[in-house]
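Sequence design from tokenized structure. All designs in this work follow the same two-part layout: the structure record, then the generated sequence. An example of the structure record is given first.
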């Protein structure tokens, strides 16, 4: 231990790892530890986390329901960009970390803590996401990352430490779990162990948020999603809060086997990692958003958004949510959404989601221009000069090669 610490706020799930970390922090730093558990829709009972923290003598225990803030202030802004990391990943884990870090720092300020701690390992992305957020929000904060400093570097040692310190161990934790998971209202991910061989297909019984597409209903289901300024506000005509809306789309998408992804991705720390993701509601939402933008965004604006999206997605994946460049891009993206309002109808069927209808009071789609029937608004002869002007540089290049 190289630094003197007086009080620590720990991001605490109540699971084996963070329970061991809690006891280790108390023992190593001989200081007060405050626990913070975020409810971001992971679907787990949070009362046991409080009970465990009390068992360790924790005096200040924070368990905060952040579901609405998570979807409203983090998921929806990210979706306005149609963000996909490496073209496919909907960033379910990445977008949760800046919110957890933000609340951790707020608690540190409330209780006068001089340090924060997390349970992310030294090989993954989350350590970077948490700590970049901490430092962006409170530059002088001290950060404790036990996985980078302690000698409990194996599951066996972790279990031995837990038994020595009378930390309750779930029965299934005594053996090797087939994979590790991370869940929130946007997604659930599965990594490690049985999934580390990228050639081996994941077992069907692993999935928890979506049915096997082969066993999904034999009839398609149609869903209407209403948007206002780029954000969804209603499903099938019923106005819903952000968190409730996403939960509703999760249920609808999961029922039809929508939103599964098997991905080998490039971590920020440099290695490749294989993960399985279930994002049913997010997959439905992304498809619907592209549908409403197709009739409300000008071509130049739409193409510019697509150009900057990979950079924006990478910033979130790497942990730079609070960076000035992400905020600059967000301002541009939000500007583009001023007239992205209307309704999209999607069809859910056997693992697929497709747009089958879209309408908007701000639609740029003009049937009187695009019709194949006779019209009074478009002179087809104008195309000749347009084509010749665009072909001029190509003709000059061809002449120069002769």
């Amino acid at each position: 231990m190289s630094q003197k610490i007086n009080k620590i706020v720990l991001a605490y799930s109540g699971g084996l790892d963070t329970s061991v970390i809690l006891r280790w922090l108390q023992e190593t730093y001989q200081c007060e530890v405050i626990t913070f558990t975020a409810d971001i829709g992971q679907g787990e009972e949070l009362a046991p986390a409080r009970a465990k923290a009390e068992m360790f003598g924790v005096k200040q225990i924070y368990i905060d329901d952040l579901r609405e803030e998570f979807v409203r202030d983090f998921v929806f802004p990210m979706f306005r960009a149609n963000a996909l990391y490496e073209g496919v990943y909907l960033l379910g884990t990445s977008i949760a970390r800046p919110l957890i870090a933000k609340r951790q720092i707020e608690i540190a300020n409330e209780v006068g803590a001089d340090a924060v701690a997390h349970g992310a390992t030294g090989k993954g992305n989350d350590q970077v996401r948490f700590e970049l957020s901490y430092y962006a929000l409170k530059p002088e904060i001290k950060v404790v990352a036990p996985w980078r400093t302690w000698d409990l570097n194996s599951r066996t040692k972790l279990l031995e430490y837990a038994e020595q310190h009378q930390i309750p161990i779930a029965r299934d934790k005594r053996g090797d779990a087939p994979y590790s998971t991370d869940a929130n209202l946007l997604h659930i991910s599965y990594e490690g162990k049985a999934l580390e061989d990228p050639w081996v297909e994941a077992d069907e019984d692993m999935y928890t948020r979506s049915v096997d597409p082969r066993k999904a209903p034999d009839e398609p289901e149609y869903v209407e999603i209403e948007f206002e300024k780029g954000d969804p506000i209603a499903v099938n005509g019923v106005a819903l809060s952000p968190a409730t809306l996403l939960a509703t789309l999760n249920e609808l998408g999961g029922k039809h086997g929508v939103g599964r992804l098997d991905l080998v991705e490039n971590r920020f720390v440099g290695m490749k990692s294989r993960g399985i993701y279930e994002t049913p509601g997010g997959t439905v939402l992304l498809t619907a958003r592209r549908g409403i933008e197709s009739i409300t965004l000008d071509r130049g604006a739409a193409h510019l958004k697509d150009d900057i999206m990979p950079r924006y997605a990478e910033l979130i994946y790497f942990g730079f949510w609070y960076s000035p460049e992400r905020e600059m891009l967000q301002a541009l993206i939000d500007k583009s959404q001023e007239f992205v309002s209307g309704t999209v109808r999607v069809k859910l069927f056997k693992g697929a989601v497709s747009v089958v209808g879209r309408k908007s009071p701000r639609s740029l789609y003009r049937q009187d221009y695009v019709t194949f029937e006779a019209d009074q608004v478009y002179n087809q002869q104008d195309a000749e000069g347009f084509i010749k002007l665009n072909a001029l540089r190509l003709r000059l290049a061809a002449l120069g090669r002769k």
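DSSP finds twelve helices and 14 strands in the chain. We note this feature because it recurs in several other targets discussed in the main text.
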